[in-house]
Specification:
The chain is of the alpha+beta class and about 200 residues long. The protein contains 4 helices and 13 strands. It has 2 domains: about 15-55, no CATH class; about 60-195, no CATH class.
Length: about 200
């Protein structure tokens, strides 16, 4: 079971097993806290400490595709539209990006899903792929909507199956990205990237 699957099963990431909840209250030095103002206050203190240690957040998605083990970077990025040239005979792609968990980035959030990018549109060689198409596989969260627009978050590594014969030579895949999730950057990684 993946990190993002807990909500679909009706289980929250912090929901203890019945025996653990009873043991936690009887044998612990502090009450078990899984939500509410007390948890938010603890998370604020932890987030402040993480930042004091030099960690920071970024919305740079580092969006790329993986096809047949090969990393493919976008050839153009215009606003949220990322264009990729696909290798011939591509069937399965992984849409890969940085990812974060809202509950680990915002003291008030209880959203435990791992989120990468919010995909609002997919076009393969000029043909749109519906966001509820079965081609969107593992790593895509359920569709969301604001009443006028629809999107699906990835978990940072989402599978897109392309039917055989749909990709010819120099096929173009376009991803319209509505938003990117903030994610943590380690101090050492930041130093290495700037060197």
């Amino acid at each position: 079971m993946g990190e993002g699957d807990h909500g679909r099963l009706g289980v929250t990431a912090c929901e203890p097993l019945p025996d653990f909840a009873q043991a936690a209250s009887a044998q612990s030095c502090a009450p078990l806290c899984c939500s509410g103002p007390a948890l938010a206050a603890m998370k604020r203190r932890l987030l402040a400490e993480v930042e004091r240690l030099g960690y920071r957040t970024t919305t740079a998605a580092e969006l790329r595709l993986i096809a047949a083990g090969q990393a493919i970077r976008p050839v153009t990025v215009e606003g949220g539209r990322h264009r990729f040239v696909l290798p011939e005979r591509t069937h399965d792609l992984h849409i890969v990006s940085r990812a974060g968990v809202p509950a680990e980035l915002d003291a008030e959030s209880e959203d435990g899903r791992r989120l990468g990018v919010a995909v609002q549109g997919i076009v393969v060689d000029g043909r749109p792929v519906a966001l509820d198409d079965r081609a969107l596989g593992r790593g895509f969260h359920d569709p969301e909507s604001d009443g006028t627009e629809q999107w699906r978050w990835t978990d940072g590594t989402a599978v897109l199956a392309i039917p055989p014969g749909r990709v010819g030579p120099a096929a173009i895949l376009e991803l319209l990205v509505r938003a990117t999730m903030r994610s943590w950057v380690e101090p050492a990684a930041e130093i290495a990237q700037s060197a």
